Amino acid sequence: MEFFHQPNYDWMGKAKYFVSLSLFLLLVGLVSAIYRHGLTYDVDFKGGTLVDVRFAQAPDIDVIRHDLATQGLGRSEIVPIHDISHPNTNEVEIDLPEQSADEQSALDQGKMRIVTALQQSFGAGEAGKQDFNAASAGDVTDFLVRKDPLGLGAAAGNRYTELGVQLTSYRDKNRDGVVTNLDDLRNSGVPAQVAASLHDGFYTGSFAIRNVQIVGPKVGADLRRQAIYVTLYALAGMLVYIAIRFEWVYGAAAVIAVFHDVLITLGLFALLKFPISLTVIAALLTLVGYSMNDTIVIFDRVRENNRLMRREAFPTIVNRSINQTLSRTILTSGLTFLTVLVLFLMGGPALRSFSFALVIGIVVGTYSSFGIAAPMVVPRHHHRDR
Length: 386
Known about the structure:
Blueprint: H1 15-35, H2 43-46, E1 48-55, H3 61-70, E2 77-81, E3 91-96, H4 103-122, E4 130-131, H5 137-147, H6 156-174, H7 192-197, E5 202-203, E6 207-215, H8 217-245, H9 248-272, H10 278-308, H11 314-324, H12 326-346, H13 352-376
Parallel strand pairs: 4-5
Antiparallel strand pairs: 1-3, 1-6, 2-3
């Protein structure tokens, strides 16, 4: 399939514009990183406790921030989670920078301090009853065994275990972790008397802790250092490969172009305050391989045309090579871009940073193959034009 029939664009004549655009994007990223005091790291790299809280109604972020400050958590970061496929999730992530020596202790303490803070404004519940939105399947099972609403007697254990799992699964899967009315549990498929009995031991809180993650500061620093090493090793390996397959100047140009892609992507992360996590590093390595592959395709065509067009000036050969591979570039990059764009729009918060890195990386990586890498090999062959 060809999108262009014998294109004849002067890419090398516009090289200065490509370089100017790259310098502008790199400058924007650098200024953003300086202004925001560096990149924003996820809990994977900086260490800390990340608590995912879902509310029954849209919360007031300022109220949450004030409540956390009263518990000595004023340095916490509160990030609302927005998902295009589910825009009304009423969910926030609270990042606690404090750590204790014992990780399990930090996990429990961080969670309890957040719960205590949020209860100040969102209700402390009913005395003598458990919050159903915070209850585990075991908590519900224990209550049902004591209450025995089905009159099963000694044979109650297994049956109520199944019902406890069924009720909490309905809460988590069908109500996104927050049930606003216990009567709604009648729709979970449990017997009516079981659902009715829950009023005696539970109430429905206005929020629920959905997930808690913790990474120690030493582990985070080690992961950050290893991520840098992995990226540099990948670039070094590709430099050696291309230098052997082509010439050293081609390898250097390809690696510089890929390094350029990574820096621009990280600069946009700094500008938009997207967090850097382990999945983002995976996306960056994917970007490195994708961009390098596109560059190799152009270089391979340059090498082939260099043998067939010995009388032509080298910039003309490079232009011809880029034009000949243009349809292939648009087809492969365009389809890949559409795929990761859908992932970015519909993949949810868990994949947001990962897919954003791919969206930006594919665009920048494709552009750098002909706008940055290709022009860099032209001066090496300038003697042919003399």
